[in-house]
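Hey all, sorry for the wall of text incoming. These are the two entities for the joint prediction.
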Amino acid sequence: MADEVVLLDFWPSMFGLRVRIALAEKGVKYEFKEEDLRNKSPLLLQTNPIYKKIPVLIHNGKPVCESAIIVQYIDEVWKDKAPLLPSDPYERAQARFWVDFIDKKIYEASRKVWTTKGEEQEAGKKEFIETLKTLEGQLGDKPYFVGEKFGFVDLCFIPFYCWFYSYETFGKFSIEAECPKLIAWAKRCVQKETVSNALPDEKKVFGFVSELRKVFGVE
Amino acid sequence: MADEVVLLDFWPSMFGLRVRIALAEKGVKYEFKEEDLRNKSPLLLQTNPIYKKIPVLIHNGKPVCESAIIVQYIDEVWKDKAPLLPSDPYERAQARFWVDFIDKKIYEASRKVWTTKGEEQEAGKKEFIETLKTLEGQLGDKPYFVGEKFGFVDLCFIPFYCWFYSYETFGKFSIEAECPKLIAWAKRCVQKETVSNALPDEKKVFGFVSELRKVFGVE
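and here's what came out:
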């Protein structure tokens, strides 16, 4: 039986992008269903009743939620091609630790850069740069975060790269000036077709973020 | 070479307890190092520089942080005995989803029950009971959360059981009245020696929580 794979997603989502890149790495064909997040589909509400959030991967009718969990699921199901998590247990734990750090710390700080103003924004920007520097410290002089190949941590963080232009423009700072090694890493990652084909244009993301700022009353 | 396993921990921690139960399930001998959280050891600061939190598992000199990640690490390293995560990728994803739910939702709500007063506490209590009911809904009439055996979700939630008496006393409610199936599940879990030997007495936890409430200025 051929696999039936459906992805409920929303085009600029860094979490949805993780799943799109993972599926591309594995060469899995799937149906992409764009969600209108102001008018969520019955399918989204039914497949993710707890959080009602994208992305949801529906594999042969069974839903998997939460992007980092979906990526691990994809890696375990389609295990013969392009392994994403390292095989060594210690490296796997390190990879999970840094993905968790991205989700808990970097994502939360990144939001403050474009959803707030004044002092709150300055504090958010400071926090965001600090968390990026921490992540860059883990990268060091290695080509990728854990191991020698593009893997779980790279895949889970590279989607943020298409948001960098928005963070920099609204936050009035340069990520490259703060974290040059992180930008060199990102440029290395987008040389991969699975990544460059997935990431939307940074100006298109900027247009989306600008609209959202109006909705949130930041502008 | 024999494994050298050290656990930096603090006795009432539900996160530390997860690791203690996992090591007991696997029959791994280890050195338990109690941390004074008001005066953290240089070893803790050095092995968990990001969060500076217990538990930290140090295996042959290499530290692993974050309890759910540590438990997965233990399951992968000592894989021949007492598997904790299911072998099926879909069940593994489900197990990870519910552990993440416990960490993100239940833990946060549980804290509000004993660290706040008045309306804030009432709201926290309502939220805590709702999240418990959601978790109980996932349990349904099964003996354990995912699969037929005591596993990852059970192990990650059962440490909360020794805090139930404190939640109930400070929140003035009965978890058994709200979630009878959850209590039946907990009683099933504590029949396991690996669990009952690990969990501290609920009255001792209550004494600790009472002291902490004074420190936090709740009482």
